[in-house]
Amino acid sequence: MTKLMITTDSTADMPASVAEKYDIRVAPLHVLYNDEDFADGVDITPEDILNRYKERGELPSTSAVTPDGYLNFFKEIFDEGFEEIIHIAFCSEMSSTYQNAVIASQEFDGKVHVIDSRVLSSGMTLLAIRACEFREEGFKPNRICDLVNDLIEKNVGGFLLSQLEFLHKGGRCSSVSLLGANLLNIKPTIVVKDGAMTVAKKYRGKDEACRLKYLKERLDEYKDVIDTRRIVLHMTCDISEKDRKYYKKELKKLIDCDEIIVSTAGCVITSHCGPGTFALFFMTK
């Protein structure tokens, strides 16, 4: 059997426990503060971003892994004795990561297979886990790629934002929209579909009530077609461990599933969406 490694980008926000369990390698994107360049999740954390914003009012920009970065990333894996790599890349319509990974893959004689996930965050994690499961079932790399590509359109994900300040600071929200949201205590949702992020339903009220309503309505929307093998509950690092356990408990009341993964937003999602961001990811049958 081919010795195959599954890899992905740091925008997958993959818990370390999941990466360790399935032996998935993660390529870090770049987090930039003027002349400072940090590797996402390696030498900067989401907590660092929130603290720096609180102390200095600074938000970073983010940039893709370069072709050279991917070249070195893939080479290190081959140097360990792996024969092929399947890379689950960050959505090509949101970043140049996919294109850069493809460029780097051309140096390895067809031994690196790059998949455009067309999603971000925990949607990428779900695809990477399924790729590992297909590998364990004995499928060859080309067949695994076909199976994962078939799953992309079944990937469902979305975010409930607690505030719009970070989107505004990043130029993705007007001052008028920010003011209106603050005055009316509006919590917008952003859904990921067909490689794009769009604003969907807006909730109004306190975070906890909005989050519980969001969970119920998202599950109701896909009732009877949810793949209940695995669901990801996703939150920014500022949401306490106590609250994480509470929301997981409430999710269990809403749906009977085999596994609930609780993950933390990485630097990219944190810097764009801000504190209090809450999300749900799953696949359909």
UniProtKB/TrEMBL annotation:
The keyword Nucleotide-binding does not apply. One of its GO terms (molecular function) is lipid binding. The keyword NAD does not apply. It holds the Pfam family DegV. Keywords: Lipid-binding. Gene3D superfamilies: 3.30.1180.10, 3.40.50.10170. This is DegV family protein. It comes from Ruminococcus difficilis.
